[in-house]
Amino acid sequence: MRTSTTRSTERTSVNLKQLPDQGEQFQFNQGSGELNRHLVDLIGSHAYNIDVTIRPQGNVYEITGRIDTEMDRICSHCGRDTHLPIHDEFSELIVVMTERPRAGHSGHTGSLLEGPSCNYITGHEFDLAEFVHEHIALAEPPHPQCGRSDCDEIFKLANRGIKIPIDFNPLLRDNGSSKKES
Ligand SMILES: [Zn+2]
Questions:
Q1: SS3 for 76?
Q2: pTM of the model
Q3: Which of 3, 42, 92, 144 could form a disulfide with 117 if both were Cys (CB 3.0 to 4.6 A apart)?
């Protein structure tokens, strides 16, 4: 059943065949809300700004843009809660496969050594929510560090087997976090 919808809200996939020759820009943020439920597992309730442009280039499509957001993670050095800024810029290609690949779903391949990453899809519907989700997941550093001034100090002490009771750390008291158990 088709209800009358305007094309902006809740629209997270793009029909590539319908793109104008000069391409189209898509912007998402927490206020517009289209991607909130798609990203909550990665960024919780943090704000985000996502800017994506898709442009036809012959038989392929160029997808460029940037993602700015934050995530809550645990510092890999001192173990405290920390906000990690995520700033991801991308310039990739979307390739529509005319033949169905073995696995039958979109894949994301490519390496820095082989030119731009390619997103292979089997139809002309491109899922921006999935694309953005994957980019944020990939942008997450494997060993996040909080950057607090005493982070290295705590790390060194911890490496020498000295435990810092986190309640006694004065820097934590104005952190707003009341987590005291571990
Ligand atoms: Zn730290």
A1: coil
A2: 0.74
A3: 92
